[in-house]
Structure formats: structure tokens, C-alpha cells
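Q: Protein A?
A:
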Amino acid sequence: MKYKHALFLNPYAIRKTKSASITRLFPPTGLEFVATSAKDYVEKLTLLDLRYEEELSDIDNLLEFINNKGIDVICVGIGWDREFKDVCALLNVMPANIPLIIGGHKATEEADNLLELCPNIDIIVRGEGEETIRDIMQGLPLKDILGISYRQGDKVLHSDNRPLPGIDIISSPDRSLRRNQYRLTVQGNNITNLTYDTILSARGCPFNCKFCTFTLNPLGQKRPYAERSVDSVIEEIASIEADIVLFSDENFATNVKRAEKICDLIIAKNIKKRFLAQVRIEIANHPQLLDKMVKAGFKMLSLGIESPHDHILKELNKGFDSKKIREAFKVFRKYPIFYHGYFIYGNIGETEEEMLYIGKFAREIGVDTIACSKLRVSKFSPLKKFVDESPSHYVTEKGEIYSDAYSHSDLKRINKETKRMFYTPYKVLQIVKKFINIHWLTAKDIIPLISVVPALLKSTIASERYKARTRKR
């Protein structure tokens, strides 16, 4: 069957809040990869990101859009736990006469559950969907398509898993499909003039951290580390219009020489952008790469630090200890780069005192911002067996671990206290100052931001005063 008009839908509508929203900062790249693979097999393709389609976030308006545009197949990406019930409610009002295809990380994890919750779903694409969607759009018999779950009468059938495709056969996302630019917002309003985008230069990770829910996909497949050619990466970067580009590789510096070559070519071709990347702390062993990254325009590095405690780092199989973390940050402080640290709390056997030390440790080593996540497990996580066999540990629907010693609410309280200790009013000002000092923000970028900072500080100070009064009681 040849489809005339395919709709690819990112279903996560943004609820307006008083805080800065980073949940709409980057495009839905996974959905874009799959849509790009499908576009040659349909007459027309529309990509909708409901985070930026306020009018179409209304279900009635969305259904009217689908009917008026003659859409005859709907593909929805479900990547995350958030808003899962809302997304299911949306799927259940999709027109029953239009094929409904679902994919994404969460859809792969919840294939059976989704098919039960959402009778309108016809097919679930499991795992990476670029090849699978082409088979579907070409009208191959479902029984001959790998990597799908589908209905046949009253039965649900699951085909064999599809082998992971080579990275070189996956096309870069077609950015012309977008209907909007991606920006940082507060209450739906842009707070800078900067636009954001992502690029994937390599897939996979050679490391084996025990907690990692991304190294293995929801099918238990581990993608070996695989690189795109440097020339293709540079060509794509040069074509990107956004001001800030995130390398979404799990570790940009896995191959140090390759990372240096990318930086060299960015400099040689005079590509003027600001780059963000994820790396491991071992990059501190390669100051020549850090120097080139600064010259190439890298403004922020995200680092998986995970814990200040050696026994936890060893249990998580991180491959380094707290001494190496401190030594790495002595090197990092020499470079005008913004450092964002990821930490995990609620680890097996971790005490409240140890969890609360995260904020102090992060300030001691010089991390600029932090993100703290509860320890999680997925179906194929190395930690799952321990949790399943432990009578005192439990797992939420989102895969978050809690225990008899620390309930889910206890862990939320500890996380709030950790952030309170780290993000003082002075720290907020330091963050803004560093944005300026490393030239992440220019004068024209700062003007819209100035009006937001007092509100953020006021909110932070009010929170501090309230908590101080509460403690006195």
C-alpha cells in the first residue's frame, strides 16, 4: 500500500510553568531520523512537534488537522516516561480508520502494555526504526518485517528483533521537515535569541557502567561503538543553521584522535557555532584535545560523575575513583568551558549523609551545574537481578529504585535538599557570569535573559527563607 500523507508526531505537549523549560530545547531527533527514512516512500510527510504547536495541542484541533490534511497513516514517537498517561489518552482518540504506528524507547519497553492500553495501535516498531519504517511504508507483509509487534485478529504477534543497522546507512535527519526553531523558553517566551540543534557523529559506547539504561536498548541489544566519517560530520555541521549544536554521542571523546580531527576541521573551515558534548572525565588526560575544543567553539561539557564515594563508583563500574575526579577538575578549571555534572543518588547501601554530600562535593571540585537522578534499572540492566532478589528494594513504574531504608518520598526530599545546598543565589549569579565569561552568551543574547534572572533569584531566595522558617519551627 502506498500512503499519500504520513504524519510523524512528537506527542509531548508542554505545560507552561514559571521555570525555564529545557524540555523543548532540542528537536525530537529520534523521530526525525525515522521520518527521514520514510519520506521517499510516501507522497507527502508532515512532522509535528506538539511542544511548539500550541493550537494543535488541543485534541479537537489536532483531529481536525488530521482530517483536513488527508493524512492516511500516523506515526508517533514515545521516547520517555513523562506524560505517559496523557500520551496514551491521545492515542486512544486517534481516528480508528487510519493506521497508527508507534515507536521509540518507551514504546519498545512497553510494547505489550501499550497494545493493551491503546486499542487503536496497529503496529509497534521495536528498537531502532529507520529500516523497519521503510519496510512498513513499502507495504511488505507484516509477517515478513523484523522488529515489530502487531495485531492479527484477537492475537498480538511479535516478530524477531531486527539486527542493529550500520551507522553509515542511516541518513542524517532532514531538517527541512521542521515547522519551528528550537529555543530556551520561560512560560512559552524565548529568553535568548539562540537556537539549538543536535548532531550524532557516533553511536554506541564501549564502556559497561552497571547503572546505564542506554548502553543496552530495551531489547537487550548493545550497540558496538561505531563512527561516522569525519567528513560527513563536518558537512552536516556546516549545513546546520542553529547557533548551538549538541553532539549527542554518548562520549564525544571515545576516539581522541578523531575528536581532534573534527575540531581541526571546524577551525579550518571557520565554522562559527557553539558546541555542547557529553564526555567522560578521562578527557582531562588529553589537554591538547581540550585546547582544540575551546578553539573550535565548545562551550559546555556534560560529565557522568555519578558519585563522590569510591565504594559506589566501584559498584557502578565507573572505572575511576574520587581522587581521579578531583584531579580531572584541576585540569578542567584551566579551560573556559562550562561543566555540567550528572550524579546518581539512592545507590545500593548509600546513606542519606552520603547522598547529601553530592552538593558539597560538586562545589568543591568546581562543577558549574548538576543534575541528580535516582538509581534506575531497566529490563536488561545488570542491577535488575539484585533488585528482583532483594526483599528490601523495589522499583517504580519508571524504573526508579527505592528501599525500606529510603522510600520514594525520602529520596525526593533528599534530592531537593541537595539542589538547595548547591544552587544558592550566589551560585546562580556565578552561572550567569560564567556564561558571559566563556562567551556562551553575547550582548544580544543577554538582554532577554536579564529580565528573567531577578525572577529566578527572587524565587530561590523566597524558597530559602521559607525553608529557614520551617527549620526554626
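Q: Protein B?
A:
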Amino acid sequence: MAANGAIYVSGSGPFDPATHRIVGRDIETQTAQTLDNVRAILEAAGASMADVVKVTVFLRRIGDFTRIDRIYAGYFPARPPARTTVAARLYGTERRITIDAIAAKPPARRPDRR
């Protein structure tokens, strides 16, 4: 959803877009699939991962934080967005991660008309 120049991605999880089934059983695979899904949603809205300013990560097991952090860093190598990570009960028994993201595209520059 886009509003006021921001793009809101809510509740993205480790689902294969074609089958709607959870991808992977390990946290690394699920993290990568979730972030791939976030990227696809942003790109469909005309944004990229570089436009993300805030992320909330919901983990079934907070002990997975270090493992997801390695994958996460690969998606935000230059300027990582602000992030909150919380332990949460997630829908379904196989789902280990859910991510919300907010992206803000800078306004397009207007040509200088002197």
C-alpha cells in the first residue's frame, strides 16, 4: 500500500509466490524468501530495498536473531534501515519469520528552470 509518498509492506512471510506454500524449514532460507518477497512488492510499487527506511522483524524464536542478521545484511549492504526485532507467535507451525517494511521514495527532482 502506498500513502503520502511511503510504501507500506505488511506481514510478508516466507511464501513461494506461485504456490503460496512456505519455503524452507531453516531460518536462513525463510529469511531470504521473505526478503525476496518484500523486494518484489517494493519493485511492483516502483521502489527498491534502498528506499526502505524502517523494518520490523517478527521471529518465532528470538534466538534466531544472529542467523537472520547475516542474511538481512546482504539485502541492505549500504545503509541498513532502522529495525525493530521482536519475538512473536506466528500463524502456522512452520513459519519462523514475518517482516513489515516502510519505504520512502525521495521526490523526483525538478529540472532547474532559470
